[in-house]
Amino acid sequence: xxxxxxxxxxxxxxxxxxxxxxxxxxxxxxxxxxxxxxxxxxxxxxxxxxxxxxxxxxxxxxxxxxxxxxxxxxxxxxxxxxxxxxxxxxxxxxxxxxxxxxxxxxxxxxxxxxxxxxxxxxxxxxxxxxxxxxxxxxxxxxxxxxxxxxxxxxxxxxxxxxxxxxxxxxxxxxxxxxxxxxxxxxxxxxxxxxxxxxxxxxxxxxxxxxxxxxxxxxxxxxxxxxxxxxxxxxxxxxxxxxxxxxxxxxxxxxxxxxxxxxxxxxxxxxxxxxxxxxxxxxxxxxxxxxxxxxxxxxxxxxxxxxxxxxxxxxxxxxxxxxxxxxxxxxxxxxxxxxxxxxxxxxxxxxxxxxxxxxxxxxxxxxxxxxxxxxxxxxxxxxxxxxxxxxxxxxxxxxxxxxxx
Length: 404
Known about the structure:
Number of strands: 15
CATH superfamily of the largest domain: P-loop containing nucleotide triphosphate hydrolases
Shape: globular
Oligomer: single chain
CATH class of the largest domain: Alpha Beta
CATH topology of the largest domain: Rossmann fold
């Protein structure tokens, strides 16, 4: 029983059991939360926080100290936030954890982010990622361009790194020099030169990127464009014969184009350099063991269609809940995507500082469909639920797209 784990094991055993349990349960994050009379342990699984067990308040500080020791943090400091990292062995590789510590009224709260298993080589390819063919084929084509910038955008935890790794794997051949700058390196890639940011010695994205340009690269991955200096260097690299991949935190693909201009890059540099932007979200996938079909109420269609009276009521799916999915009805994740291929018309609009509404209209004229459109297709195919679709996408433009 997990409750007894905290009562009878040593702190080291408790910590080890907690970490390996999180790996077994496919958790993306571990929350260790001090309460008034106990400490609550929660895992984020398939995007949802679930309480796993509780331990006595007396064990909270020792458990935190054990994790801080593993992370090489100051165990005596409890008044200020701290960040660290550590790894534990698993099979022939290691699992990396990123640790965040903040003070609260009942003690320090820890959140551990589980990063990819290093030494693992069986990451998903683009063909294995359930990307719709209408998006996958043009994306595969654009990532083979000789120069320019390709962005993947979305919130934290939306699978951007997974998509970028798969893209690099797709174009990784013996005659191409691919280099990455990451914070942190999440997966080791054979045949690709990977470098990691180290802010403790002021080794940031822009510093590494400048040096990388002297390494004769053909393709570069910049983990994230966070500031004007990095954005400028990346844009100049794209304009001088390099293919550059990176990420931005925007709500959709169109906004990523505008964000570069907002960062301070001149529109006349952004317009010719940017090739494409893919936006994505991760939603919970319906458990295949307890999946059930149902017919929704017709009122539901009003949310998704411009003229729902002309649409037949479709069959939808949800999970009934079972032991396999911890009674949630979900197990695993599925991604929604949208892709904007920058056209000559859009380049002209970017140069004239057009807003995202004008750019969206131009993108729609050449077939752009928003995230919610892709999500709706995947709900109709039985991969996810309408509830997940509503939770992870907005209504923007869908009714107009359907009407047209």
